[in-house]
Specification:
7 strands, single chain, alpha/beta, 7-stranded parallel β-sheet, Rossmann fold
Length: 250
């Protein structure tokens, strides 16, 4: 089960963290990869690890807020692999700041990457998938698509919007055989969550919110992406899968 040999996947934000782990899990299952990111050196490391799994890996160093660059990179991925079977729209950023202190240039940066960049990617890959009448899109949302958190207003805004975007795409693209689902991670130990890990008091408070009493690791997310990319999930679309140690079940 969950054999992805002969399939190809495009993963954005593949340089590190969840994106890197998802890429490695897809490679373990046999998928060829097209890896996107802004950090060329880190992306090359991911590429090397992917290729150790015996699959093909290509890379694109780009800014996903550049729509033309996104469209060129999608076209290149199709040329390199013949098709895109799975898109993992993972790229995202966050900044911790009280709502009243945000400046327009700051929130525009977060919105540009988390929403506009993802929208550009979904449109470009989605056109290819709907024409082929096949594909799986995985949007990396968040538990903050459902709940709020102090200092995270703009991040919550974008992740809530991303979840709704994925749901709408799932409905629109279902008649083309294209599935769209969301993964909603909780507190995963990555560069993105590092600002939370500032002292023992903060860490203890965070763990208290999680029934399983541990923070997640990037490798806790990747296997779910494999399932959603595989044929075994062919009747699953428009869904959101929370991976949070039980945090929002409280």
């Amino acid at each position: 089960m969950f054999n992805l040999k002969g399939k190809s996947a495009l993963v954005t934000g593949a340089s590190r963290g969840i994106g890197r782990s998802v890429a490695l899990c897809l490679a373990e299952a046999g998928a060829d990869l097209d890896l996107w990111g802004r950090d060329a050196a880190a992306l090359a490391q991911t590429q090397a690890e992917v290729e150790k799994r015996g699959v093909k890996a290509t890379v694109a160093v780009l800014d996903i807020t550049d729509r033309a660059a996104v469209e060129r990179a999608v076209a290149a991925a199709i040329r390199n692999h013949g098709k895109i079977d799975t898109l993992v729209a993972n790229a995202g950023v966050n900044k911790l700041k009280p709502l009243l202190e945000w400046k327009p240039a700051e929130w525009e940066e977060v919105i540009d990457i988390n929403l506009h960049g993802t929208l550009y990617t979904l449109q470009a890959a989605g056109r290819h998938m709907t024409e082929r009448k096949s594909g799986s899109v995985i949007a990396m949302a968040s538990i903050y698509s459902f709940v709020g958190a102090p200092g995270n207003s703009i991040y919550c805004l974008t992740k809530g919007g991303l979840l709704q975007l994925a749901r709408c795409a799932a409905i629109e693209w279902a008649r083309y055989g294209v599935r769209v689902n969301s993964i909603c991670p909780g507190w995963i130990e990555t560069d993105l969550t590092a600002p939370y890990m500032v002292d023992e008091k903060t860490i203890a408070a965070g763990l208290k919110q999680i029934p399983l009493r541990r923070f997640g690791k990037p490798q806790d997310v990747g296997p779910l992406a494999v399932y959603l990319a595989a044929d075994e999930s062919q009747w699953v679309t428009g869904q959101s899968f929370t991976v949070d140690g039980g945090q929002i079940a409280r």
